[in-house]
Design goal:
With about 400 residues, the chain is α/β, with parallel strands linked by helices. Helix content is about 30%, strand content about 15%. The chain has a single domain, classed as Thiolase/Chalcone synthase (Peroxisomal Thiolase, Chain A, domain 1).
């Protein structure tokens, strides 16, 4: 018997409530206000009150701490709290922490949240003079900064160029990912890019930010917050809405993980493979499912190239064929694997992957603005780099 079989968590917990604020460029609200609004919305969606919550999980890059939110909500007895990070690799792992707390008896009802004033406050894509000084950033990344590697867009631009050199990937193929996400956002009134159409001509004419990545290859900057409520599958049966079962969750770093936050990954043997490949093996094994069982996916899309690499790593197309796969309609509604049906980070909002989990729940409830007919299994990825995490959700 394997460890996964002996200590399995398959379908034993569920997401019973989801909530979000509006997504904007200037919220006019504090981080704590945003987190509180999203949490209250999630609890209302679940038919619960703050008194029912005894656990909270946060991202370690969040400015709101567990006790801040507990006080704002009036939670009476918090028996569990934890944090996961950094940023984009955290959301699915945060749900995993909630599952672990519930199955170990440390909590019964766990609130998971992420907030950020990502446009009007801290802008995550910017560099600083501190980051460019060796010894100033407190990370191995600092050894790359003096040579001009300062932002996430630059590192993914290097990866995109490598994929183009090795496999012949074209700009138009990356553009198709941007167009698909924009089309889904155009159907979603809550999306930042709702009502703003995007054509291939628009995409190709946009200014180059980090060659070969253009303006629309980059995710949005967003003010907002998302939250969700996790409890046991048994308790979930009494919820206000149909529960969405957590089929499996996984984390992973792959072989020979590099130190630092992100830039040292360019020292890996292959820079066209993300930790998604390692996480995928673990998640599929734990779930007893594979890519052929997945009806819809919410793929972490800080950049278009991140989507393309993950499609290959998660087994939806062979290595090196991500470009033709997306250009051929593989990720469109009605395609092999419809993705980012709320608009994703490229066009809905950038909440470090938490909005992807909320959209996955909507899909399995039949509530999405771009509903995939008969969707029963949804993959959500938090696998940009250098480690990663992921979820498989299943309709109850």
């Amino acid at each position: 018997m394997t460890v996964d079989e002996e200590f399995h968590h398959r379908d034993r917990c569920a997401i019973v409530g989801i909530g979000a604020t509006d997504y904007s460029r200037a919220s006019g609200r504090s981080d704590l206000t945003l987190a509180t609004q999203a949490a209250l919305a999630a609890l209302d969606d679940a038919g619960l009150s703050p008194r029912d919550v005894d656990g909270i999980v946060r991202c370690d890059m969040d400015t709101v701490r567990q006790h801040d939110l507990a006080d704002a909500l009036g939670i009476q007895d918090l028996t569990y709290w934890s944090e996961v990070g950094p940023g984009g690799v955290a959301p699915c792992a945060m749900v995993g922490q909630a599952v672990g707390a519930i199955l170990s008896g440390q909590a019964t009802t766990v609130l998971v949240f992420r907030e950020l004033n990502g446009r009007s406050g801290r802008r995550y894509g910017l560099s600083s003079t501190v980051d460019a000084q060796v010894g100033g950033a407190g990370s191995y990344d600092e050894f790359f900064a003096p040579y001009g590697l300062l932002t996430p867009g630059q590192i993914f631009a290097v990866m995109a160029r490598r994929h183009m050199i090795e496999y012949g990937t074209r700009a138009e193929e990356l553009g198709h990912i941007a167009l698909v996400c924009r089309a889904r956002a155009n159907a979603n009134p809550a999306a930042q890019m709702h009502g703003r159409a995007l054509s291939m001509d628009d995409y190709l004419a946009a200014r180059m930010i980090a060659d070969p990545l253009r303006l629309f290859d980059f995710c949005l900057e967003t003010d907002g917050a998302c939250a969700l409520v996790v409890t046991s599958a048994a308790r979930a049966r009494d919820g206000r809405k149909p529960p969405v079962l957590i089929r499996a969750v996984a984390q992973g770093s792959g072989r020979n993980p590099q130190p630092g936050v992100q830039f040292p990954v360019l020292m890996r043997e292959s820079i066209t493979e993300l930790p998604a490949r390692s996480v995928a093996r673990t998640l599929y094994r734990r779930a007893g499912l594979g890519p052929h069982d997945i009806d819809v996916a919410q793929i972490y899309d800080c950049f278009t190239i991140t989507v393309l690499l993950q499609l290959e790593d998660w087994g939806f197309c062979p290595k090196g064929e991500g470009g033709p796969f997306v250009a051929g309609g593989g990720i469109d509604l009605g395609g092999r694997i419809p993705i980012n049906t709320g608009g994703g980070h490229l066009s809905e909002g950038y909440l470090h992957g938490m909005n992807h989990i909320l959209e996955g729940v909507r899909q399995l409830r039949g509530e999405s603005t771009s509903q995939v007919p008969g969707a029963e299994v949804c993959l959500i990825t938090s696998t940009p780099l250098p480690p990663g995490s992921a979820l498989l959700l299943r309709a109850a």
